[in-house]
Amino acid sequence: MKQDNIRARMASIAWPQRTALGPAHPAPRSPRALIEPRASAHQADKQLASLSVAFDRFDIGDGAVLSFHHHYRNGDQLMNPVLAEAARRGLRGLTIAPSSLFPVHAPLAAHIRSGVIGDVITDYAKGPVTDAMLSGALRGPALLQSHGGRARAFSTRELKIDVAFVGASLAQADGACTGRGGAVPCGPLGYAMMDAAYARRTVVCSHEITAGPMPHTDIPAAQVDAVIPFPTPGEVSGIASDTTLAAKTPQACQIGDLVTQVIDATGLMRDGLSLQTGAGGYSLSAVPVIGDAMARAGVRGSFLSGGITGSHVALQQAGLFERIHDVQCFDTQAVQSSISNPDHLAMSAAQYASPLQPDAVANGLRVMVLGAVEIDSQFNVNVTIGGDGRLIGGPGGHPDAAQGAALTIATTGLTAGGFAKLVDHARGVTTRGDGVDVIVSDQGIAVNPRRPDITKDLRSAGMDTCAFAQLAALASSSAQRQRCAPAKAPRLLIEDRAGGLLDWA
């Protein structure tokens, strides 16, 4: 079960050359044809006693490609036991393709250094495992994809999964399962839907296996090969984390107000508004402020999308938005809404953001509000590499929604952790500047020169704007630490949503 094509593909990628304008972006790749998901699983008796039995039944050996999902986020309790079983068996050279990695996955660092894990392909990574990923212990650079890019790679079979492990809160004996039911719900299994649809084999590990009906079905029985009773696939308390909590500082309130003013000035504060806010304290803090402005103006939006929080739910329940399109829940309030609210709709990662789906929800966004680790003079955004050179995140849905939205706003303070956040050249670029329209900071607004129409709108509304260089100078003068030296050789490759290499670190 060796996945030689992954290594060959990663080895053949030409690294982008850095220029005075940042990474030189490659020409877009020709899209591959979509491949239909598998129609049915072949196992008659799907219930298995343990992970060990699943390893035997599905012949998981050296070089296998295993996928996982992150709907429990830092509460995930499935990936560690699966990789512990692989280590117990003495397996080597596994490729893991989790949709995200969190501090809870710290035990994977030992598996990387011992050779159990040979390659990592993921959308986001944070915590102790990231140091092992960048240490040179892997066979080559780790690969970061966007959420839409991961869905694209599955649906074109660019990334072939041998066995997908799905943690579900509720399942039936035939394998049908959901994250919207049972004692430990996590919300819609939007990312796991793609894993199950395209993996050679799918193993569902569920806290509860019911003989009765389920309130929802995220993954149909036809895409599941085995069901394992599991103590708990995840801890609900770990779903909310630092990047999914709104900031409550005066700076955050100021940024939220400015974001709302930008939306209004550009004429988008009107009926039919569709909105997504990315992970990050400043971006999430804008949600209730936008809602207050909509209520005052009598505006009713069409939909909210992306990672959903209780703040988004509150706007929809107040009648400010018709519906929610949910690929993952960011907190327990959103989880409960996904279970009980008929206007809170589940979607797969492909429906959310695959670049091969013209009708993807991300492409229908009027407004996207993003967070940022760094933004450079070309409006390229880094949400991957911190000023200390450590891996602290990844693309996630950041570039997908930025490219799809009519108006993309990046929110940021001038500094964080003593490092300037507005720089000449961002490292670890995850979203190209041609998809970012406006920067909103606590010290002012900068508009991308590619969007003179927005500059005109803001000035007509009496709003002040400034050049990027002005904000960058303020950030530099406030910084207390210098960024560490860039990597001399790639330890991390960053794909754009179409599968071309965007940057490396």
Care to describe what's here?
With 505 residues, this protein is of the alpha/beta class. The chain has 15 helices and 28 strands. A hairpin with a 2-residue loop joins strand 25 (438-441) and strand 26 (444-447). Helix 6 (147-155) runs parallel beside helix 7 (190-198), helix 8 (250-265) packs across helix 9 and helix 10 (310-317) packs across helix 11 (332-340). The model is unreliable at 12-32 (pLDDT under 50).
Helical content (DSSP H or I, runs of 4+): 25-40%
Largest sheet report? 9 strands, mixed
- CATH level-4 homologous superfamily of the largest domain: Glutaconate Coenzyme A-transferase
Radius of gyration: 22 Å
User: What's the tally of helices?
Assistant: 15
Going by helix content, strand content and strand pairing, the class is alpha/beta
- Residue fraction in strands: 15-25%
How many beta strands in the DSSP annotation?
28
Give the uncertain stretches in residue-range form: 12-32
CATH-derived topology of the largest domain:
Glutaconate Coenzyme A-transferase
Mean pLDDT over all positions: 91
Return the CATH architecture of the largest domain: 3-Layer(aba) Sandwich
How many distinct folded domains?
2
For the biggest β-sheet, the strand order reads 12-10-7-3-4-5-6-27-28
Instruction: Name the shape in a single word.
Output: globular
CATH top level assignment of the largest domain: Alpha Beta
Gap between N and C termini, in Å?
Answer: 29 Å
